[in-house]
Amino acid sequence: MAATADFLDALLFSALRSRAPRRGALSPKLWTCVGALAIPLWSTWPALALWSFEMPAFECLTIAFAVGWLVLALLERRPRPHSRRDQDRRWLPYLPAIACAIGLSGSNAFHILATHYIPAAEANLLSYLWPVEIVAAGALLGLFTLRARQIVGLGLGFAGAVVLMAGGELSTSVTGVVLALLSGVSWAAYCVFRLRWPSGSDASRIQSQTKGPSANILATGCAISTALCAGLHFALEPTMMPSLSALGAAAAVGVVPLALGNFVWDEGFRRGDSQLLAVLAYATPLCSALLLGALGLASLTWGLLLGGAIIVTAGALSRAPTSNP
């Protein structure tokens, strides 16, 4: 276990540490690049989900969160408190961990429940309002200074996602629409919370003593999410014995998009250009579609190419300098 942890730690951060002994010394541009790595990692989810399709949704998520919990626990480095006061404040990191659990399990659970009432394409589009919600909430809280270029870029990003994912007729189910919106709100609320969390002096001091604060928070969040999804599974679904291929796909979901994807996103989003990353997140469905096409699981269409061009344009517009916390 220790050897695996050292390997993962070296794989993710050895190159960065060789340039700068402290992670905080990296430039915002480098942290933005780190956060952007989440996009190809998140993009593996649809393909892996297809391979695990034989399993009930919440059973698959329970396995994925459990594996993600293990991977992030291996990345984690727990600090030993140096004083009695530090011992009394060890509960503070659980606040973002609870927010993480709400963001992770809430976004997935609400999305799955929404697809029982509205088509999956419509649920995806409504859920993908979360980048807009992040920037809007950040602006209201004084975290962002909005410029016209960023607003246009964000709008184009969502327009590109519409072109990519739109299909079929829109449903009028209020329940389905609300559930899909709650899916996006759950993740957006977590991201905004993480932007504000380091501003507290106690939280900053505790996190500065931790080699992997994101791993610590995400590991605890995945543990809580595992329990929540297991409860939803036993309450709503039958339990099935998965095949080895489906079990492997569910485990891969835990390793790649859930653990590593959210880990680099959390680091880059807090330390880099969070507004630009919010717009670049719209490239996730594009990369997902390209991966599905490359694997022969979906066909490439003109809508895919047009949506991709719109999203690339949105990213280029959003590269103007912005204010970050």
Task: Give an overview in words.
The chain has helices at about 1-20, 30-35, 40, 45-50, 55-75, 85-90, 95-115, 120-125, 130-140, 150-165, 175-195, 200-210, 215-235, 245-270, 275-280, 285-295, 300-315. The chain is mostly helical and about 325 residues long.
Report a brief summary of the structure.
This protein has helices spanning 2-19, 28-36, 38-42, 45-51, 57-75, 84-88, 94-114, 120-127, 130-140, 148-165, 174-196, 201-208, 213-236, 244-271, 274-280, 283-294, 302-317.
Features:
single chain; 325 residues; mainly alpha; 0% strand; disordered C terminus
Question: What topology emerges from the helices and strands here?
Answer:
Elements: H1 2-19, H2 28-36, H3 38-42, H4 45-51, H5 57-75, H6 84-88, H7 94-114, H8 120-127, H9 130-140, H10 148-165, H11 174-196, H12 201-208, H13 213-236, H14 244-271, H15 274-280, H16 283-294, H17 302-317
